[in-house]
Specification:
Blueprint: H1 3-15, H2 19-26, H3 30-38, H4 46-56, H5 60-71, H6 86-98, H7 104-116
Length: 122
């Protein structure tokens, strides 16, 4: 599941909106919306994010947060380490190979470290 998908699912549940009903309101298939929530589809377009916000009745800061989550929710990431230190390339490759096997607490600690760096919250 992606950060956007997780938030979308929670917001839908809080409002009592079924996946089928939201899909109809967004003019997408329930299968597509489910795949988006579960991270089996790429990140949503900015237009779809705004449609989702309208459907959920969210405004201002919540919309900005939804946009931010959409930006960081591409489930298949390519990391370009061209011109970086060899350690950065090793890190990217090791993470790509092992991320599925990392315990959740390790992933959360690594993420906290990255967020703590300058520009890490982007």
């Amino acid at each position: 599941m992606t950060p956007f998908g997780e938030r979308l699912r929670r917001l839908r549940a809080e409002r009592g909106i079924t996946l089928k009903r939201m899909a109809a309101q967004l003019h997408v298939s329930p299968a597509y919306l489910s795949a988006l929530e579960h991270g089996r589809r790429g990140r949503p377009s900015p237009g779809l994010v705004m449609q989702v916000a309208g459907c959920l009745g969210i405004i201002w800061d919540e919309v900005e947060e939804l946009k931010r989550l959409a930006e960081i929710s591409h489930p298949r990431v390519v990391v370009d380490t061209t011109g970086l230190d060899p350690a950065a390339t090793e890190l990217a490759n090791r993470l790509a190979r092992t991320i599925r096997d990392l315990p959740e607490d390790v992933v959360r600690r690594m993420l906290a470290e990255l967020r703590a760096t300058p520009g890490g919250e982007r």
